[in-house]
Amino acid sequence: MFEGVPLSWFLILSTVMFFVGVYGFLVRKNLITMLMSIELILNSVCINFVAFNKILYPEHMEGMFFTIFIIAVAAAEASVAIAIIINIYRRIVNIDVEKMDEMKY
Q: Which helix (H) or strand (E) holds 101?
């Protein structure tokens, strides 16, 4: 699977994905984009787990199991976050982070 691709390519890809996710989380004001940025960060971690597992321990599957666990937790987190975002939208008809102080009343 990774025979011709060096580890550094995977590390560069996951680093770029991680920092794009951090940038999107810090800069964007929309809750959906912030959620997508968190998912991007989690996927960059999954790439690292799979790449290091395949290169360092090709006969073991721990990196794959951690990745499946991260995907399951991310799916649960995304479903709860989207449910919260839908309730916020129904209440204040906006999902801008700047407007969240209106929920106090």
A: none
Supply the CATH number for residue 69's domain.
1.10.287.3510
pLDDT in tens, 29-58: 888 888 889 999 999 998 998 888 888 887
**Which string of DSSP letters, residue by residue, matches 33-78?**
HHHHHHHHHHHHHHHHHHHHHHHH-TT--HHHHHHHHHHHHHHHHH
Asked, for residue 105, whether it belongs to a domain, the answer is no
At residue 93, the 3 state secondary structure works out as coil
Its domain, for residue 79, covers 7-100
Q: What share of the chain is helix, strand, coil (3-state, %, to 5)?
A: 80, 0, 15
Q: Model pTM? A: 0.77
| Position 2 confidence tier, pLDDT thresholds 50, 70, 90 | low
- Alpha-carbon span 92 to 74, nearest angstrom: 26
Residue 17 in any domain: the answer is yes
- Residue 60: is it exposed, middle or buried by C-beta count within 10 angstroms (0-12/13-18/19+)? exposed
